[in-house]
Write a structure and sequence with these properties.
name from scop; 377 residues; elongated; transport; transmembrane helix; cell membrane; 6% strand; single chain; five-stranded mixed beta sheet; 15 helices; mainly alpha; FlhB; bacterial flagellum protein export; 2 domains
Length: 377
């Protein structure tokens, strides 16, 4: 076991390993991608609906600050107006909130999708260990997170500086514009700045997404011993599979033996092979082989047949031909129809003789078996 623990995880994760990881909530995730998607979506939405929200805000402010005398002295008026103001404000931002919720749900699907797992949300005491926290802080992942934060700061700083140089004149000019025009103009500038600042994070996303996919795959890599153990667990140990096969064979043999007393005739070798046949004259099918066996199994079939008064017919070539050419619960091949018909004719004559107390007919002799079905065993 010590040797197994020292092995390097060089093998790609198997499909079972990946599926087990998904069930535990371990999927590739990029917070940078989710944040970028929400920022870009909100910036575009702000540019598209900024005018409508700006006009709505102006109308809301006019209605709330232009009060008539009777409204001022009405005790219920403040409550009613506040309620109406809340509804109007909510109607202004409802589309924005709905789009943000949709983006928050859809964005994670780009990598690993949504996975709900009790194991992933269950509290873990090891996360409260300060020593492990410091180890994570100074690990490779902690260093990468620090580099990403520094890169985001530099990108936003550079984009903000360029935006400042571009819009400084318009920002100063907002003070001399009419109020309505100034608010709409300010919203337009904010929307463009928001969009540019958000778009600058695409550089971080392009670095983080491949890294998260690589890191997720690296964590799930397996050693050769782990793959062998998984194969044993999946396919089962040889001794267990052998025991299952033995049980299945015993069950099949028991079912086969239960059909022997229902057979019409048992054709024997006479000692090495025994084949039980059943024929339904009302059906249009051929006789069916319901049981067969060799040596000890053949002896058991003969014993059951004698106990159930099923006729035994000694026809070595036919018994061998049926044994090797036909599976249990299958119709006999067409080439053996004539030979089996001779046996069944004898069986029906024997049955009639016993019922009417006649002399029993002689068993058939020299039953001819086609050359292609002969077995010299």
């Amino acid at each position: 076991m010590a040797e197994d623990s020292d092995q390097e995880k060089t093998e790609e994760p198997t499909s079972k390993r990946l599926e087990d990881a998904r069930k535990q909530g371990q999927i590739a995730r990029s917070r940078e991608l989710n944040t970028f998607a929400m920022l870009i979506a909100s910036a575009i939405l702000l540019l598209m609906t900024g005018g409508r929200m700006g006009n709505g805000l102006l109308s809301l402010m006019r209605e709330q600050f232009q009060l008539k005398r009777e409204v001022i002295f009405d005790p219920l008026s403040p409550v009613i107006r506040f309620k109406q103001a809340m509804l109007d404000g909510l109607s202004l931002i409802a589309p924005f909130i709905a789009v943000m919720v949709a983006v928050a749900v859809i964005a994670p699907l780009a990598l690993g999708g949504w996975i709900f797992s009790w194991e992933s949300i269950a509290p873990k005491l090891e996360k409260l260990d300060p020593l492990k926290g410091l180890a994570r802080l100074f690990s490779l992942r902690g260093l990468i997170e620090l580099l990403k934060a520094l890169l985001k700061f530099l990108l936003i700083l550079a984009a903000a500086f360029l935006l400042y140089r571009h819009f400084i004149g318009e920002l100063i000019g907002l003070g001399v514009e009419p109020v309505d025009q100034s608010i709409l103009h300010a919203l337009h500038i904010v929307g463009i700045c928001f969009l540019v600042l958000s778009a600058s994070l695409i550089v971080v996303v392009m670095i983080d997404v491949p890294y998260q996919l690589w890191d997720h795959n690296r964590k799930l890599k397996m050693t050769l011993q782990e793959i062998k153990d998984e194969m044993k667990e999946t396919e089962g140990k040889p001794e267990v599979k052998g025991r299952q096969r033995r049980i299945q064979m015993e069950m099949a043999q028991n079912r086969m033996m239960a059909e022997v007393p229902k057979a019409d005739v048992v054709v024997t070798n006479p000692t090495h092979y025994a084949v039980a046949l059943k024929y339904d004259m009302d059906s249009k099918g051929a006789p069916i082989l319901v049981a067969k066996g060799a040596d000890l199994m053949a002896a058991q079939i003969r014993s059951l047949a004698v106990g159930a008064n099923v006729p035994l017919v000694s026809a070595p070539p036919l018994a061998r031909a049926l044994y090797y050419s036909t599976d249990v619960d299958r119709e006999i091949p067409q080439g053996l129809y004539v030979a089996v018909a001779q046996v069944l004719a004898y069986v029906y004559q024997l049955k009639m003789a016993r019922e009417n107390h006649w002399n029993e007919p002689r068993p058939p002799v020299n039953i001819q078996v086609p050359d292609e079905f002969k077995q010299d065993r």
